[in-house]
Specification:
This protein is of the alpha/beta class and 387 residues long. The chain has helices at 13-19, 61-73, 85-93, 110-122, 137-141, 165-174, 227-239, 245-255, 258-276, 296-302, 319-325, 348-352, 372-386; strands spanning 7-8, 11-12, 78-82, 101-105, 126-130, 147-153, 178-182, 200-204, 218-222, 282-286, 310-315, 333-334, 344-347, 362-366. The chain contains 13 helices and 14 strands. The strands form three sheets. A seven-stranded mixed sheet has the order 3-9-8-7-6-4-5, with helices on both faces. Strands 10-11-14-13-12 form a five-stranded mixed sheet. Helix 9 runs parallel beside helix 13.
Length: 387
């Protein structure tokens, strides 16, 4: 299922991740791209800018390296780097005007959902959340001539339902809306939504793209440069929400190993999911790579480089039992995030708060780079103690 032989320009995907941007430091022969921490950039004797950069609030050479690579990975026309995932999300939805309408899943990243609720309440913007389990849920939520943005996650966090991106794009375009896809848990080594008809792709780059739990960043990739994209770029400039040079440099370093990290996490997650199916303390394992998952066929069609390292367990027990399990592991760290080299466990409903529709007995796992056998042993002992 590897994408290692797919081409991005003159190179294969994996080679592009390793070498893209190195040519920028050719004068001294450094094998690692430079970090440019300058906040301002000088002008010449005619008061013309020496280069293309003015001020770091607009952009920086290091940020532009990440953006160039991100656009190539997702087969987009351009990309913009933000100081956090939510900063990019907010910039996109700042382009939605009063009187327009937004459609999004009932279960999605809670921080983004909270922002949608806020602007719906304060700016007279229509908002409809649809049930991913209902095959007609998305189309029934659309309003012709009103819906401006359809936002989906695929897979959906934390049930890992795969939404058919091509069908969602056709439905959105049919009413004059754009489709934006949160592909955080399905990075471009496995899914490229633009190839399925999406207009915008979003990544919380703090997760798989960085992969080391030490950077806050977000990325938007567009299928084409248009008026909406120009407005998003202007919003980022006015808000000053571009990622700092050091964070951009760390993100670029993390991207170099994205393929091998995602491949390892996918392999371990599939093994763990298969081993825990049928465990007496587990009522269901939610993982798109399992044939038992309701949207396995869609995931298999869209996730061509692996099913990722995210899975959830529905426990035979109460919300208290599920919360307790998240504190009984020895290798899994009880913390909120995903996509890092370390494995994490969390009780999702507790994290999401009062609006959460996540089942109380759900525990979310992010599989890292540790030995799959050690991780499985850790889960077995924690489940045994819980029982």
């Amino acid at each position: 299922m590897s994408r290692e032989h797919e081409q991005i320009g003159p190179w294969s995907f994996d080679t592009c991740l390793i070498h893209d941007g190195h040519e920028t430091d050719a004068p001294i022969g450094a094998v690692v791209p430079p970090l440019h921490p300058s906040t301002t950039f000088a002008r010449n004797a005619n008061y013309d800018l020496i280069g293309e950069y003015v001020y770091a609030r607009y952009s920086s050479p290091t940020a532009r390296l990440v953006e160039s690579l991100a656009a190539r990975m997702d087969r987009g026309a351009d990309a913009l780097l933000f100081s956090s995932g939510l900063a990019g999300f907010v910039a996109l939805f700042e382009t939605v005007m009063s009187g327009q309408h937004i459609v999004a899943p009932q279960i999605m990243y809670h921080g983004a959902q909270d922002w949608l609720r806020r602007i719906a309440e304060t700016r007279e913007i229509g908002l409809t959340f649809f049930d991913v389990a209902n095959p007609q849920g998305l189309t029934e939520a659309l309003r012709a001539g009103e819906t401006a943005v359809v936002w989906i996650e695929s897979p959906v966090n934390p049930t890992w339902d795969a939404i058919d991106i091509r069908a969602a794009a056709e439905a959105a375009h049919g009413v004059g809306a754009i489709l934006a896809v949160d592909s955080t848990v399905a990075p471009p080594v496995t899914t490229r939504p633009i190839e399925h008809g999406a207009d915008l792709v979003f990544h919380s780059a703090s997760k798989y793209l960085n992969g080391h739990s030490d950077v806050l960043a977000g990325i938007l990739v567009t299928s084409e440069e248009n008026d909406r994209w120009d407005e998003i770029r202007m919003i980022r400039k006015l808000q000053g929400s571009v990622s700092g040079p050091f964070e951009a440099w760390l993100l670029l370093r993390g991207l170099r190993t994205l393929s091998v990290r995602f491949e390892r996490a996918s392999a371990s997650a599939l093994l763990i999911a298969q081993e825990l199916e049928g465990h007496p303390a587990v009522s269901a394992v939610l993982y798109p790579g399992l044939e038992s998952h309701p949207s396995h066929a869609v995931a298999r069609r869209q996730m061509t480089g692996g099913f990722g390292g995210m899975l959830s367990l529905l426990l035979e027990g109460s919300i208290e039992d599920a919360r307790a399990l998240a504190t009984r592991t020895r290798l899994f760290i009880p913390a909120t995030s995903l996509g890092g080299i370390e494995s994490l466990i969390e009780h999702r409903a507790s994290v999401e708060g009062p609006h959460s529709r996540v089942p109380g007995n759900l525990v979310r796992l992010s599989i890292g780079m540790e030995s799959a056998a050690d991780l499985l042993e850790d889960l077995h002992q924690a489940l045994a103690e819980a029982r």
